[in-house]
Amino acid sequence: MLLASNGLTFWEELQIAFGGIGILPAILLILGTVLIVVEIFQPGFGFFGISGIILVALGIAIRLFTSTNGNLFIQFFVMLLTVTLVVSVALIIMVHSMRKGRLSRTSLVQNSTAVPTGITKGTEDFSELVGKNGIASTVLRPSGNATIDGKLYSVVAQSSLIDSGKEIVVVDVEGVKITVKEIQ
Question: What percentage of the chain reaches a pLDDT higher than 70?
C-alpha cells in the first residue's frame, strides 16, 4: 500500500519515524505514554493524563523537527497511531481486569476511605459508660437525653419508648451513639 507521492509504504514510514528517533523524543514518547496509561488505571484530577499528552506531543514535535527523510505528515500520524494503540491495549486490559475482578484486588484501586475508623482525637470515648445506670431526662422515643454519672448525654433507647424519669442502663456504645434500655 502506497501512502505518499514519494512511494513509501506504511512500514517504511514506520521505520523512518522510529528508526533514527533520538534519545530525547524517545524518552518523551515513552514517558508520555506511560503517564497516559497511569491515568487510565488511576483516574483522578488528570495530572498524569495531561502531563502524558503534553510529553507525547513534545516527543512527536521534536522528532518531526529533526526528521530529514520521508513525509512528515505521515510520520506524525504513524507515531500518533502507535501511541493510541498502546493506550488502547492498556484500556482493554483494564476493562478486562475489571470484568474479571482482578483490578479490585490490586493496590491500584483504593479500598479505604480518607476518614479514619474507630475513636480518634476528635471523637469522645464513651466506652466507660457501658453498664452504668442513669435516669432518662427526656422521653426516649427512641432518642433523647439521659443523665449518667451526673452528666447529660444524648442517648438512643433499645426499645421504642422510655418515659422521662425512668431508670436506664447503658448496654452499648458505638462511637458517639450510646444505646440504653430501661431497668425493670
Answer: 80
C-alpha cell at 129: 459508660
Cα 10 to Cα 54: distance, rounded to the nearest angstrom? 26
Q: How confident is the model at residue 1, as a pLDDT? A: 43
* Cβ partners under 8 Å of residue 65, min gap 6: none
CA distance 56 to 60: 6
C-alpha count within 13 angstroms, C-beta hemisphere, residue 72: 9
Residue count of the chain = 184
Distance CA 37, CA 85 (A): 11
Write out pLDDT tens, residues 14-59. 777 777 778 888 888 889 888 888 887 776 778 888 898 899 889 8
Q: Is 83 helix (H, G, I), strand (E, B) or coil?
A: helix
The packing angle between helices 72-100 and 47-66, to 10°, is 150
Secondary structure class of 60 (helix, strand, coil) = helix
What element of type H or E holds 96?
Answer: helix 72-100
